[in-house]
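fyi for ur records
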Amino acid sequence: MAPDAQARVVLAGGIGSGKSTAGRLFASLGAEVIDADEVGHAVLEPGGAAFEAVAARWPDFVVDQAIDRPALGRLVFSDLAELKALESLTHPAIRSTIGRRLASVEAQVVVVEVPLLSDFLGDGWRRIVVDTGDSVRKERLLARGMTEADVDQRMAAQPSRAEWLEAADLVLDNSGTAEDLEAEVRALLDQLQAPM
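which gave:
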C-alpha cells in the first residue's frame, strides 16, 4: 500500500503508561505494529547494526560477547550526556530497520511504538500519546519488579506528563480499566481508517 494511503502513527508515552498494551490492542484489531524498543534491542545484539559501535564506546558493558543492556541502561538513564551518546549510535540503525519494514507493509494503519517525544521517524506521522497519571505509572513499574530508584531515574529521564500531552495529536486515556482502553483503541482505529 502506498504510504499516502496509509495512516501512519507514532504511539508514544512515558514508561509505564500502557503503550505496549495499546500496541497489542492495535495489532489485534488489524493494524501493523512495530515496537521501536524491540528493534532497539535487536540492533544491540551481537551482529546487530549498532553492536560494534556501542561495544567500542562502552567496552566495560560487554559481557560474554554481548552488551549488558540493564547495566548500560542504569548508566545512560543517570547521565543525559551518556544517553545522548547511546541514542546517536542506535537511532540511525533503528530508523533504517523500521524504514525497511515499512516498505513492505500493506496494512491500512501503521503504528510504531516509540518511547520518545522527538519526531523520531520524520514528517508525515501523527502522534498518539497514551496518558496515565504518574503515580499509576510508578505503581505499574514497581509491580513489574523495578526498584523505586530505577523507576524514579527512568521517569526523570523522560518528558513530563504535561510535555507528552502537549506534543500529542491524539490522546488515549489509560487511567481506567482494560476494557475502557480497548474501547478507546477501537474508536481511534475507526477514526484512522475513515476516508480522508
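The longest helix spans residues 80-102. thats all i got for now
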